[in-house]
Amino acid sequence: MQTRRAMREAKRLRSRRIRAVLAGGLVFGVGAAMTLAAWNDSEYATATFTAGRFDIVGATDGATFSSHATTGAAATLSFAVAPTAMVPGTTTYALFSVKTANPSGAGTLQLTAGTPSGTGLATHLTYGVRLVPTAATPSQSCTAATYAAASASTSIVVADGSALTTNGAATGTVPQAVTANGGNQLNYCVAVTLPTTAVNAAQGLTMTQTWQIQGTST
C-alpha cells in the first residue's frame, strides 16, 4: 500500500517527464522550421575566348598579294629601268604594296633597310621612298610622275638622297596604318638613284638590298 508521500513523489516524477517531452518537442520543432527556411538558388555565366590574328601580305604589282615573311622568301621588286645597267643620273622606280590579310586585325607598318651585299655599288647609290595612291592600273602606281606628286611630308617615308642603309620614318611621323581584313593598302614607291657624281670606279659593281616592312597590330 502506497503512502501519501510516495504518491506525491510519483506524481512529481510524471510531471517532470511530461515537461521534458514537451521541451524536446519544442526543440525539434524549432529545428525543423529553420531547415525549411534555408532555400537557395544560383545563376551561372560562361564565355569562350579565341585569339585573333595579325598578318600582312605584299605585292610588287599592286594587285597580286601573297606572304613574303622571311628574307629567303622576299619579293623581287620590278624596277621600271632595269637596275642591271645603271649610269650616272639614272633613277629607277619600283612598287611594293602592303595590306593586311583576310582575316587579320588592323595595324601599322614600318620600313627597315637591311645591310646591302655585293661588290660595293651600294656606297654610290642613294634612294628615297614615298607613299603613293593606287592607280587605276595598280602596276602604274609607282612612276616618276606619281613619285614627284607624293611630295607632302606625310607621304615621305625615306627622304631623297638617303644612303641605302637608311630606315623609314616612324609610323607616328608618316601615318602608315592598315585596316583590318585587307581594307586598304599602302603603296611604297622606291626610287633608287645613281647620282651624276658617281665616279668611274662604280662601273661594273653590284649591290643587293632587302627591305623589311614590319607590321604591328593595333
Main traits of this protein?
SipW-dependent-type signal peptide-containing protein; three-stranded antiparallel β-sheet; 2 helices; Signal_pept_SipW-depend-type; 218 residues; five-stranded antiparallel β-sheet; alpha+beta; 27% strand; 2 domains
Secondary structure layout plus pairing:
Blueprint (H helix, E strand, L loop, with lengths): L3 H34 L18 E4 L30 E11 L6 E7 L3 E2 L7 E7 L11 H6 L6 E7 L14 E2 L6 E10 L12 E2 L2 E7 L1
Antiparallel strand pairs: 1-2, 2-8, 3-7, 3-10, 4-9, 5-6, 5-8
Task: Describe the overall structure.
- The chain is rod-shaped.
- Mean pLDDT is 89; it is low at 24-29.
- It folds into 2 domains: 1-36; 56-217, no CATH class.
- It contains 2 helices and 10 strands.
- The chain is α+β, with helices and mostly antiparallel strands and 218 residues long.
- The longest helix has 34 residues, at 4-37.
- The protein has helices spanning 4-37, 144-149, and strands at 56-59, 90-100, 107-113, 117-118, 126-132, 156-162, 177-178, 185-194, 207-208, 211-217.
Short summary of the structure?
It comes from Microbacterium galbinum. InterPro entries: Signal_pept_SipW-depend-type. The protein has helices at residues 4-37, 144-149; strands at residues 56-59, 90-100, 107-113, 117-118, 126-132, 156-162, 177-178, 185-194, 207-208, 211-217.
